[in-house]
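Issue 218. Parser rejects a valid record. Input:
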Amino acid sequence: MSRKLNYILRPSLPRRAVVWFPNFSNAASIDRFRSLYDPLGNVMPPHLTLVFPFHSRLTLDQLTAHVQKVVRAWPAFPVVMNGVWSAQNEFVGLGAQVGKDALAEMHDRLYRGPLAEFLRPEFDYEPHITLARAVQPNQFDALVRNVTPVVRESYRDLLRSVSLITLESETQWSRDRDIPLIW
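Output the parser choked on:
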């Protein structure tokens, strides 16, 4: 006699991230470029990722408490972005110049405690906003050339809060919580 096994399908764990959505007064050139070359360009506004997407059983309240504990160490601070950032001959973006050290330290501290298991130490963290992704191997050099007029400009804002987001799919996401830095 054979026994039939019944499997209970569990819903997949939420895929969350911690990001900063800057409000640059001159963001139109970023938006235009991203709409052409970034697969997320028409899905999500320009953003700087502090904690990269991860699947976790942590609740939204648990994540919020952790992020609040970390970011309350900082007063709001200025961020200036310009210049080319690139990685793995695939991604092209806008690098952080002013505020770079604070962003890197915030990233490092966010990956402590309950998020420590999600840190990928094989990648060095460079604060940036992704502007393009080369989908073909021979496309990268052209993207670097084309992005030059965009990254020549300086983009300035005050980092006042970070956001917890949930990525529902490659084309859907939600902004779950905005967590302010101290003023």
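Fixed in the parser; the record now loads. The CA atoms of residues 85 and 93 lie 5 Å apart.
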